[in-house]
Each structure stands twice: as structure tokens, then as C-alpha cells.
Amino acid sequence: MTSALEIAANLTVAASILLAGRNSVHTWWTGIIGCSLFGLVFYEARLYADVVLQGVFVLTSVIGWWQWLRGDHGHALPISRVQLRTLGWMLPAAVLASVGYGLLLHTWTDAYAPFLDSAVLVLSVVAQLLMMRRKLDSWWFWLLVNSIAIPLYASRGLHLTAVLYAVFWINALVSLRHWRRLMHEQAAAIAAADAAHE
Fold first, then answer.
1. How far apart, in whole angstroms, are the C-alpha atoms of residue 160 and residue 138?
2. What pLDDT, in 10s, does the model give residues 154-172?
3. Distances from the Cα of 93 to the Cα of 64, 114, 160, 171, angstroms
4. pTM recorded for the entire structure
5. CB 147 within 8 A of CB 120
């Protein structure tokens, strides 16, 4: 049965995710509230990696809020891409961390689906770190996270949350396209400004 806490968490995080997709700095404070509520929801569902993840989200949201406003030498960060060499070490590290943390959960707790839960945690951290730096590629990681999270949450009876993550999956796809367009517009504006100063 869906609780009032789960409904409140879903509504608040939905607002945060939609704001992120629109490239709005207000994504961060709404995310802090929503992730705090989700920490309680996941604790009750014994999805302990997700509890830790919500704590990470709260912390990174504070940092991300500042980064988006002042992270480019006191100015707002532009949207950019991750370098391929960075992805070259990031992806294997994420797989190893997912397996390692999954083993810890499997061995030392009564966690449900520890390896899937761990993958959601690790990939979400990667996506969030990229989001903090306003990287377009964060949306590819969010697509992967949501693809794992939807069946995981549904299997624990968190049906509203599973539906929300299905909406997040669609939002990530739309946001990827929107951010790509914004990034090209930013590049064109910078090129035009540089040409004007020549």
C-alpha cells in the first residue's frame, strides 16, 4: 500500500527531476527535500543502498546548487560533455563498485536484491556527479539507472515509485535532447561573441 510518505517523496522528487530537465537551478533545493523523504521510504523497504544513495544525493545537491550558480569562476556552469578518456575509467570503476558494494550488502545485511540495489546506488552517484558539473552525459546514466530501478522498486511493492521512475526514464530521454540543443545554442553564442570581439 502506498504511504503518505512515499507520495510526498515522489511528488517532491518529480518536481526536482523535471526542473533538472529544464536546466533550472531550483532542481537542487527541491531535490534535497525529496531525497530526505525517500531516505525514509527506502529504509522502511530495507533497500539500504538506496538509503545511502539518498544521503549522497542530499550532500551532492548542496554542492551542485553552488556549482550551477558559481562553478565557472564565479559564473554559472555551461552545459558540456564528458571526455572519452574519463568515461574509459569511470564505467569499469562503476561496475567494480557495484559488485563490491553488492557483495557487502549480500554478506552483512538482509538487503533485498543487493546487487541491483547496489547498481542503482553506484550509477546514480556517477550520474549525480556528472549532473553537478552540468554534463550532458549525465542523462545517459539516468536512463540506465531508471531502467534498473523500475523493476526493482515494483518488486518491493513500491508501485508509485516504480511508475515515477518510468516517468523519469521518459524525462531523461527528453532532457537529453533538450540539453543537447541548449549546449549547441551556448556554443553558437560563444562563437558569435568571439567573432564580434575580433
1. 24
2. 998 888 889 989 999 999 9
3. 22, 18, 31, 26
4. 0.83
5. no
